[in-house]
Design a protein that fits this description.
The protein is an all-alpha fold. Helices cover 98% and strands 0% of the residues. The mean pLDDT is 90.
Length: 132
């Protein structure tokens, strides 16, 4: 065997041995590549869902701001319109109550006087009927 043939034989043996030992590494690397692709697909799905959630959160923030604005308008309306009217109504009722409260004792006396007058009128009516 010549040196060239010997070198060629050694080269073939090394190639075969190298292929046998490198193949599991290639297979493992291919498996890792496949897993990375799967992870990328899942990550894209998660990113899409996050974007959708961001959109929904923005929409909710807009709706919450609208509710805050409406609540502010209602409070402003209450302070400017309703409260002054309620105060006017309250002062009217309070004034009327105070006027009537001072006459409560006088009314009781007046009712007693009316009862006395009824009895006197009834008594006088009987006397007048007897005279007639």
């Amino acid at each position: 065997m010549t040196n060239n043939e010997l070198l060629l034989s050694i080269s073939r043996m090394l190639d075969t041995k190298l292929k046998v030992e490198i193949q599991p590494i290639k297979d493992a690397l291919q498996s890792v590549k496949n897993e990375v692709k799967e992870i990328n697909v899942r990550l894209q799905s998660v990113e899409t869902e996050v974007q959708q959630l961001k959109g929904k959160v923005q929409q909710l923030n807009g709706e919450v701001q609208q509710i805050k604005d409406e609540t502010y308008q209602l409070r402003l309306n209450q302070e400017k319109t309703i409260m002054p009217r309620l105060n006017t109504i309250e002062s009217g009722y309070t004034g009327t109550y105070n006027r009537y409260r001072s006459y409560v004792e006088k009314m009781e006396t007046a009712f007693m006087d009316i009862d006395v007058l009824k009895m006197v009128v009834a008594e006088h009516s009987e006397k007048l009927l007897k005279l007639a």
